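Design request, tokens follow.
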């Protein structure tokens, strides 16, 4: 096919020139739900209207704890009560502000009554472990998508 010329066809440049001479896209914009926006062109730059997450959340399934209890090694957790010394925390869940770290569920075993039966003794717990602060994914007014 290389080098073969087709007679009767206009060039690409001529086609585009003719198209734009006859058609002018409207300047109208419309607000559509996100699922219907696929394949469309944005009319303006898009900025986040919220911070995400909206509050501090657990970064994994596990238990929320006070990291200070682990400063000198493993504390005596066998007598801990849920809501007092620990709280269950699923990924994306908020939890009481008195807790500042989350231990992954893989490192914990529960007794049938819901108390803690075991925490792996080879873990360290620091403030902020497995915790995502508010706005750690997206901050309010952050640029998200451009109009071009």
């Amino acid at each position: 096919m290389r080098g073969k010329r087709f007679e009767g066809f206009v060039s690409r440049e001529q086609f585009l020139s003719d198209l734009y001479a006859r058609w002018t896209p409207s300047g109208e914009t419309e607000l559509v739900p996100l699922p219907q926006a696929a394949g469309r062109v944005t009319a303006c730059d898009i900025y986040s209207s919220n911070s995400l997450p909206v509050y501090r959340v657990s970064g994994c399934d596990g238990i929320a704890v006070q990291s200070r209890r682990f400063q000198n090694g493993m504390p005596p957790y066998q007598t801990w009560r849920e809501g007092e010394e620990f709280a269950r925390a699923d990924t994306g869940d908020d939890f009481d502000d008195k807790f500042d770290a989350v231990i992954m569920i893989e490192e914990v075993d529960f007794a049938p009554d819901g108390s803690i039966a075991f925490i792996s003794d080879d873990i360290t717990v620091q403030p902020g472990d497995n915790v995502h602060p508010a706005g750690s994914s997206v901050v309010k007014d952050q640029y998200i998508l451009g109009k071009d």
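Comment from the thread starter after seeing the answer: thanks! The helical segments are 12-22.
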